[in-house]
Design a protein that fits this description.
The chain is an alpha+beta fold. The protein folds into two domains: about 1-185, no CATH class; about 215-335, Heat Shock Protein 90. The chain has twelve helices and seven strands. The chain has helices at about 1-10, 10-30, 35-65, 75-120, 130-140, 145-160, 165-185, 190-210, 235-245, 280-285, 290-300, 330-335; strands at about 190, 215-220, 230, 255-260, 265-270, 305-310, 320-325. Helix 4 (about 75-120) runs antiparallel to helix 6 (about 145-160). About 30% of the residues are buried.
């Protein structure tokens, strides 16, 4: 199983190399209303089979020549036709998943441009500062999504040959995530309940990817589920925890998500049992674009009313804590 997985993971990089070209064709042959979408759909069907054929031919050559050590062309072709028959339709799903990812990213880019343009048109209005802050928040939020999507595609690629059912589950979760993310694309905050639901979808994908190497514990009081939190605020924290929890882990990685409330504020913590942050700079500034953007979003939304701290646990591992005001949703206030 481990050998098969180690052989299949490098195959992901072939799809990674194809991704820019698929994105380019997706933009040129889009399904927008003002485009001949029926013609474009047919072209993508043909193009999808062509890309899958090239992928299977290249990877069959790799598995036959590099892994097996055979140099004749006949075994390469035999493996190609066998794999085309057995997993060609799964690889076609990956093509459409990448195509959909490109379309989603283009949607977000256009959405951000519209928001920025709206801010420019309101330069003379009294709401200038609020509009500019919103455009900046949108810009920061958009930078997080590519990590979210590419990690999912990586998981699909790693599972596609060894666990087709698992790959189908991941693809289904990806569809749910894309749909849910599009539904909240214009919202800066969502109820904690909705954020937790999105987080569970993401974690299900990661658990399919890492198997029994990753365990997750979520502790959220039901009384806090209607507190409004920044959209997708947990995703970069969990990515960071998985990165530190899985890295050099000698035992099962444990990710803990906990929420508590005191004095009309909620504390959200995400911790792991990995080696922790490596130096004071990573603790002070955050490790990578995810945590630094999270800090910037919180500063824009809450100013001095929030707290963000990344540190090492005394018992080992890293923990990121966020404290923000517990602003209730309008529906919750009306019910009360």
């Amino acid at each position: 199983m481990l050998r098969s997985l180690s052989e299949s993971i490098p195959l992901f990089y072939v799809w990674f190399a194809f991704t820019p070209f698929i994105f380019w064709f997706g933009r040129k042959l889009s399904f927008e209303r003002d485009k001949p979408w029926v013609r474009n759909l047919l072209i993508h069907v043909v193009l999808g089979y062509a890309v899958v054929s090239v992928y299977l031919l290249l990877t069959s050559a790799y598995l036959t020549v590099v892994v097996k050590g055979l140099t004749e062309i006949a075994p390469v072709l035999d493996r190609f036709f066998d794999r085309f028959y057995m997993i060609g339709h799964y690889q076609l799903i990956i093509y459409w998943a990448i195509l959909g990812t490109g379309a989603a990213l283009d949607y977000y880019k256009k959405y951000r441009e519209r928001e920025i343009e709206a801010s420019r048109l309101l330069l003379r209005s009294t709401a200038l500062e609020a509009q500019l802050n919103k455009a900046q928040l949108d810009s920061l939020k958009m930078q997080l999504h590519p990590h979210f999507l590419f990690n999912t595609l990586h998981a699909v690629s790693a599972l596609i040959e060894d666990d087709p059912k698992g790959a189908r589950r991941v693809i289904a979760r990806l569809g749910e995530l894309l749909r849910s993310t599009l539904d909240i694309a214009d919202q800066q905050t969502v109820p904690l309940k909705q954020e937790i639901e999105l987080t569970k979808l993401y974690l299900e994908i990661e658990q399919e990817r890492f198997g029994d190497k990753l365990d997750v514990e979520i502790d959220v009081p039901s009384s806090d589920l209607d507190c409004m939190v920044p959209t997708l605020i947990l995703q970069p924290l969990i990515e960071n925890a998985i990165k530190h929890g899985i890295k050099d882990a000698k035992t099962k990685a444990m990710i803990e998500i906990r929420v508590s409330r005191a004095n009309k504020k909620i504390e959200i913590s995400v911790s792991d049992n990995g080696p922790g942050f490596s130096n004071s700079d990573s603790i002070e500034l955050g490790d990578g674009i995810g945590l630094s953007n999270t800090k910037a979003r919180l500063e824009q939304l809450y100013g001095d009313a929030h707290s963000f701290k990344a540190s090492n646990n005394e018992k080992g591992g890293a923990v990121v804590r966020i404290i923000i005001p517990c602003n209730r949703s309008k529906r919750s206030n009306e019910e009360q």
